[in-house]
Structures are given as structure tokens and as C-alpha cells.
Design goal:
Layout (H helix, E strand, L loop, with lengths): L1 E8 L11 H15 L19 H22 L5 H17 L11 H12 L1 H19 L6 H25 L3 H27 L17 H15 L1 H32 L2 E8 L1
Antiparallel strand pairs: 1-2
Length: about 280
């Protein structure tokens, strides 16, 4: 009986329930890190716990450890290989460099590659791409501080959301123009989402009027109301400009980037299969 080796397309691996644990734990950690100001009614009024001077290193350590665990788990189960990891690293480095390209109102091209990468590579890799790209860009721009792990989580969630959108697109196969329009819409929403989430980090530092300032011991609804006022007053205008810039950048460059990344995925998504003859 003769045998031969031929390449066949690698099917997308569907993680078993237990293999989602590191990913779910990672996102739960991020949610707790951002949202705990809304649920700390017993905090002392003079407490400085909300400045993140002590918890930020713990959050960053947990983020790095769980990301590493996620990569190892995906490699062990065949979802990741050396070529995909190399491609992920290149995309993250390029996105980090694009963060230095300044657009109006402080916007930049960072989100273009994060969103396109998540769209093509899927939600898990999209999360890793956003997180890794943000950390690399922090080292490039000197933006290292207690805010960095919170920014990394928010960037990862943008990549995750884009990956979920790409999964829906692969399922229903819409026209390519609609796919690009969807990318532009995600880019527009990403700027607002990132601004809303990341301002949770800085809000406890703000001292202003009683309708927008944080105060330990506020009830959840009152805290949400004050935070909504704070975001509208301080960041919404800037984020709106960033939203428009993201939509334009993805509308112009999204199509060619998606095609290029799909070719990369198709080229390196092959596995060998042993065929028997006779």
C-alpha cells in the first residue's frame, strides 16, 4: 500500500468549554478592574485606593500571565502555530508604529490594523492583537504607567468585538463592499467605546462639580449618572473626531488590508494529510 502527503485546508478549531476558561478569566479580570468603582459602597471617603497605584501592577501581571496561558493553550490544541504567532507579532508591531501617526484631535491609525486583524483572525487572536499592540506602542511612545494595563484591556476588547463581527461575516458571506462598510462602522464605534471604557481609569482622579465627580460610596445608579456627565463633558467631542477618522481610514484602506490578511490566512492555514493508495 502506497502513501502520500498532501496539503488540505485547516478547519477552524472550535475550543471546547474548558479551553475557554483562560479567555473568560482574562475578560472577567478586565471587567472587574474597570467596574469596581461602581460597586464599592463601603469605601472610606479619604481612601486613595481608586488611584490604582497598587492594583495596576497586579492587573498587568495577571493580564500578561493569562495572555501567555491563552497562547500556550491555543498552541497545544493546534489553533496557533509559529507562522500565525509571527504574523500576529508583525501586525502588533505595525499597529504600534501607526499609533505614532497623529490625525486631527489626537486620533491615530492604530485601530485600523487592530480592527482588520481581529476581523480576519477571529475574536481570540483579535483580543491578543489589540492587547499586544497597545503594550508595544506604550514602550515606543513612552506611555508606560499604571494606566497601561487598562488601555491594553480596552484595546483587546476592540479586537475581540471586531473578531466577532468577522465571524458573523464568514458565516453569512455578505458582499465585499458590505464587509468594508461593516469595518468602517466598527471603527466608528471603537473610538467611542474606547473613550467610554478608558475614562473609567481617570475618572476617580477628577475633582469638579457634584454632578460629574467621583466619590467613594456612591450608589451604582448615581455613579453611572455622574460618569455619563463626566464623559460627555470631557471626552465625547474628541472621541467623535476619532470615530470619524477611524471610519474614513477603514473605508479607504480596509478593503486592501482585508484581502491581504485573508491571503495570509489562506496561505498559512494548511496542514498535511497522509493519503493511502492501493
Amino acid at each position: 500500500m502506497a502513501t502520500d502527503i498532501r496539503p488540505v485546508p485547516r478547519t477552524f478549531w472550535a475550543p471546547r468549554v474548558g479551553e475557554w476558561i483562560p479567555f473568560l478569566a482574562l475578560n472577567a479580570l478586565g471587567a472587574i478592574a474597570f467596574l469596581h468603582p461602581f460597586f464599592t459602597g463601603a469605601a472610606e471617603p479619604r481612601s486613595r485606593w481608586f488611584e490604582h497605584s497598587t492594583d495596576a501592577p497586579l492587573v498587568f501581571g495577571a493580564l500578561a500571565g493569562l495572555c501567555l496561558l491563552l497562547v500556550v493553550a491555543d498552541m497545544a490544541n493546534g489553533r496557533l502555530d509559529s507562522k500565525t504567532i509571527a504574523g500576529l507579532g508583525v501586525l502588533a508591531a505595525m499597529a504600534a508604529i501607526l499609533r505614532t501617526v497623529t490625525l486631527p484631535a489626537g486620533a491615530n491609525l492604530f485601530w485600523t490594523l487592530v480592527i482588520v486583524g481581529g476581523w480576519v483572525l477571529g475574536p481570540r487572536l483579535g483580543f491578543l492583537l489589540g492587547t499586544l499592540a497597545l503594550v508595544i506602542s506604550a514602550f515606543i511612545t513612552g506611555g508606560i504607567g499604571p494606566w497601561m494595563p487598562f488601555q491594553a484591556f480596552a484595546a483587546g476588547w476592540v479586537g475581540l468585538a471586531s473578531g466577532l463581527g468577522g465571524g458573523v461575516s464568514r458565516r453569512f458571506q455578505p458582499p465585499f463592499r458590505l464587509e468594508v462598510a461593516s469595518l468602517a462602522a466598527i471603527g466608528a464605534l471603537a473610538a467611542i467605546f474606547y473613550g467610554v471604557v478608558i475614562n473609567l481609569w481617570s475618572w476617580p482622579f477628577f475633582i469638579g462639580g457634584p454632578d460629574i465627580s467621583y466619590q467613594p460610596g456612591l450608589g451604582t445608579l448615581e455613579a453611572l449618572r455622574r460618569y455619563g456627565n463626566y464623559y460627555l463633558v470631557t471626552s465625547f467631542g474628541w472621541d467623535l473626531v476619532g470615530s470619524i477618522c477611524n471610519a474614513l481610514a477603514l473605508g479607504i484602506a480596509g478593503g486592501p488590508l482585508v484581502r491581504a490578511l485573508k491571503r495570509f490566512r489562506a496561505r498559512f492555514s494548511w496542514q498535511s494529510e497522509q493519503v493511502h493508495y492501493g
